[in-house]
């Protein structure tokens, strides 16, 4: 099963993709994570992406579609994937169709995480992750059980994204509204969009997604 998790920044895509990985053996393909890794490694892709990401603007379509194709080539045909943060433009949606069909794959579902825009700034400015294993946390909504210690790996190193500021969130929201939300009708015409209320607890959202996917 191949699915897209679609929703604005802070909607909970990464959180829910992580749960689907842990509980259902799917693989999360997050273009944001891949781009951050490229920036850190100083690759050509990273050099192209860095300033745009810091400003909250989208990275060029061919860059992200290229890395998605490469990553899919590393996976077996039976491995189900979750696209997290991709596609984000009409051109990426078209590219994804081609990337999938060239590999004998197709999209089964698009989960649209429906969230209250007002909640997103608080979600994003409170977000932090474990520097070692990448587990996601939040200042208010998900603190480690023992303060300063990652629940998953025991590390005491945490990090925050440089683009998780109130100012950059506004730009990212505009990019979402202007370029990403308009791709939903493409999938609605195909009858594969499942709307999920993203405002419940993380567990409730997970339950709703599992119900929508009949897992
Ligand atoms: P996205 O990948 O869509 O940008 P994340 O999954 O990183 O969003 O979530 C953004 C922040 O909000 C994280 O700190 C996460 O812990 C928190 N979060 C995610 N889902 C929920 C939820 N249902 N309720 C409260 N906080 C949430
Ligand atoms: P969030 O889900 O919190 O918005 P991501 O980690 O998905 O954040 O993306 C962070 C940044 O990486 C984006 O603001 C953008 O600059 C870049 N990016 C990630 N995915 C894409 C994509 N599919 N197309 C263009 N830019 C992307
Ligand atoms: Zn950890």
Short description, anyone?
With 215 residues, this protein is of the alpha/beta class.
Question: How is this structure best described in words?
Answer:
With 215 residues, this protein is an alpha/beta fold. The protein has 9 helices and 8 strands. The protein has helices at residues 13-24, 31-41, 44-55, 61-73, 90-102, 117-125, 166-180, 184-189, 202-213, and strands spanning 2-6, 27-30, 81-84, 109-114, 127-130, 136-138, 158-159, 193-197. The strands form 2 sheets. A 5-stranded parallel sheet has the order 2-3-1-4-8. Strands 6-5-7 form a 3-stranded antiparallel sheet. α1 packs across α9 and α4 packs parallel to α5. The longest helix has 15 residues, at 166-180. 33% of the residues are buried. It binds adenosine-5'-diphosphate (ADP) (2 copies) and zinc ion.
Rounded to the nearest angstrom, the radius of gyration is 17 Å
Number of strands: 8
Q: Regions with pLDDT < 50 over 5+ consecutive residues? A: none
Beta-strand percent range: 15-25%
The global form is globular
Main β-sheet description? 5 strands, parallel
* Order of strands in the sheet with most strands: 2-3-1-4-8
The ordered string of helix (H) and strand (E) elements is EHEHHHEHEHEEEHHEH
Structural class per helix/strand content? alpha/beta
Tell me the span between the first and last alpha carbons: 11 Å
**What is the mean pLDDT?**
96
**Helix count, DSSP H or I runs of 4 or more residues:** 9
Ions and ligands: adenosine-5'-diphosphate, zinc ion
Q: Helicity level, as a percent range?
A: 40-55%
